[in-house]
Write a structure and sequence with these properties.
CATH class of the largest domain: Alpha Beta
CATH architecture of the largest domain: 3-Layer(aba) Sandwich
Distance between the termini: 58 Å
Number of strands: 7
Oligomer: single chain
CATH superfamily of the largest domain: Glucose-6-phosphate isomerase like protein, domain 1
Strand content: 5-15%
Length: about 280
């Protein structure tokens, strides 16, 4: 059961003060995992006993018990492929159910307004830089392929070219960063460097606990389930396709001529087999 589900289960029994605590916790779960009672009480502007009563209403013996549980949730999320194999969770999980749930969650979280917000910098950017970790590469590749079909100046930053590519980015550019737990230090550092250069950064990640969520104001959260020992590529690929679709709509009349040019080149280079007749 997630923290959202625990709060929902006692929703009707929460006092006005406890509702304020719940709102703060849902907006920033890092406060539960890493903050003290005082940190949370100061944020909500309530008393320490109120925080403790909130924890007990969620079914815990106190704040320390709630924090231990929350930290365990984070630890479970960060489990390595080897740990998943050894624990048996990679074999016992309901893969089909998890993927179906993740797809539905992605479609809900990436509503029209959110996709508009994510695509807006990509429509007006001079260049687009895509950064990714290994486990999120499928989404980044889908975004690179789709955006490259409809506009120029789209680049996937490879680790060995990181400094070179970052050095030529400007405030007229935008970047899309894909990264999920376990978060890659180089990806986060690169995103921070781009922000310092004035580049608009769009982050596609998996949790408010993600370091990308703390540095990029324009970000979205995906539910990325494990498929065997590894994370599923389906949610980030779906997110990439929705962003490409919205970007194409925003570019409007510029898109058909580019696709026509691509078609002509493909035909001239005999890229595809022609079907008989």
């Amino acid at each position: 059961m997630s923290i959202e589900e625990r709060i929902a289960a006692v929703n009707i029994r929460l006092t006005p003060t406890e509702r304020r605590i719940a709102e703060v916790v849902l907006a920033d779960p890092t406060l539960l995992a890493f903050g003290t009672v005082s940190d949370l009480s100061e944020r909500v502007r309530t008393s320490r006993p109120s925080i403790v009563r909130f924890a007990t209403k969620l079914g815990f013996t106190g704040y320390a018990d709630l924090q231990r549980w929350m930290r365990q949730q984070v630890a479970n999320q960060l489990a390595t492929p080897g740990q998943r194999i050894r624990s048996g969770s990679a074999i016992q999980s309901d893969v089909r159910g998890d993927i179906e749930q993740a797809v539905q969650a992605t479609l809900v979280s990436l509503d029209e307004e959110t996709v508009d917000r994510l695509a807006a910098p990509l429509i007006r950017a001079e260049h687009i830089w895509i950064l990714t970790g290994e486990t999120s590469r499928a989404g980044a590749s889908a975004l690179l392929s789709g955006l490259s079909m409809i506009r120029t100046g789209v680049h996937l930053i490879e680790q060995h070219n990181l400094a070179r590519d970052l050095s030529v980015s400007t405030s007229r550019d935008a970047a899309v960063v894909f990264d999920f737990a376990r978060y890659r230090r180089t990806t986060v550092h690169a995103a921070r460097a781009l922000l310092e250069l004035g580049v608009e950064v769009v982050a596609v990640t998996d949790s408010p606990l993600s370091p990308l969520a703390s540095i990029a104001s324009n970000w979205c959260e995906l539910n990325v389930p494990a498929v065997g020992p590894f994370d599923s590529s389906i949610p980030p690929v779906l997110a990439a396709e929705l962003i490409v679709l919205k970007t194409a709509a925003g570019l409007g009349a510029n898109v058909p001529p580019r696709i026509d040019r691509l078609e002509r080149i493909w035909k001239q280079t005999e890229t595809f087999y022609e079907s008989p007749g």
